[in-house]
Amino acid sequence: MTVSAQALLDERRPARADARRNFDALIVAARAAFAEDGIDASLEDIARRAGVGIGTLYRNFPTRDALVESVYLGEVADIAARASDHGDLGPFESFAAWLDRYTGFAATKRVLLDGLNRDSPVLASCRGVLFDAGEPLLKRAQEAGEARDDVTIEDAIRLISGVAGAVYADPEQRDRVIGIAIDGLRAPRS
């Protein structure tokens, strides 16, 4: 079993309550700054957004890589945790809802990946976390005859990542194309 992204993030989180609050505020601020300004967002701006000094940022994240990795871990932990959010839906609808949520991550993932060291063991671990989260949903849909039986979770994640990362004319087109991609994972109707 893959170590959870949340466990990896928790290992980095300080023990003291006030330090944890600063750490969490820096993660939230960095996520917003990276989404708005790309991976080269100003660290000083991130510290200001979090309401802390630059020294606090560097105490928690000695390098930009450490900050980017922690933001990435937080995103992966959130997506993995959402796998159980849709248990009240039918098998395919549950899988589709998780993939839909994953599309938001996939769009920001590209920005974060540009700032991550590609040799980082965090990347391989996070891939495993995502596969472990989504695979039971896909299997449930396949067992119900609602999802194609020739699809793996890796296929589905690669498909959605590629489609979500493309450039679109407007949000409506993006949503429509993502819907087409997700619908392509359905089992053929007889």
Describe the model.
The protein has 190 residues and is mainly α. The protein has one domain (5-183): Tetracycline Repressor, domain 2 (Orthogonal Bundle), CATH 1.10.357.10. It contains nine helices and no strands. It has helices at residues 5-12, 17-37, 43-50, 54-60, 64-81, 91-115, 121-143, 153-164, 171-183. Helix 1 runs antiparallel to helix 5 (64-81) and helix 6 runs antiparallel to helix 7 (121-143). The longest helix has 25 residues, at 91-115. The radius of gyration is 18 Å and the shape is elongated. The model has no long low-confidence stretch (mean pLDDT 86).
CATH class: Mainly Alpha
Structural class: mainly alpha
Query: Which percent bin holds the helix content?
Result: over 70%
Q: Rounded to an integer, what's the Rg over CA atoms?
A: 18 Å
Determine the N-to-C terminus distance.
37 Å
Series of secondary-structure elements, N-terminal to C-terminal? HHHHHHHHH
Q: What name does the CATH topology carry?
A: Tetracycline Repressor, domain 2
Quickly count the domains. Answer: 1
Question: What can be said about the biggest beta sheet?
Answer: none
In short:
The protein is mainly α.
What order do the helices and strands come in, and which of them pair?
Blueprint: H1 5-12, H2 17-37, H3 43-50, H4 54-60, H5 64-81, H6 91-115, H7 121-143, H8 153-164, H9 171-183
Helix pairs in contact: 1-5, 2-3, 2-5, 5-6, 5-7, 6-7, 6-8, 6-9, 8-9
Based on the model shown, name its key terms.
single chain, 190 residues, mainly alpha
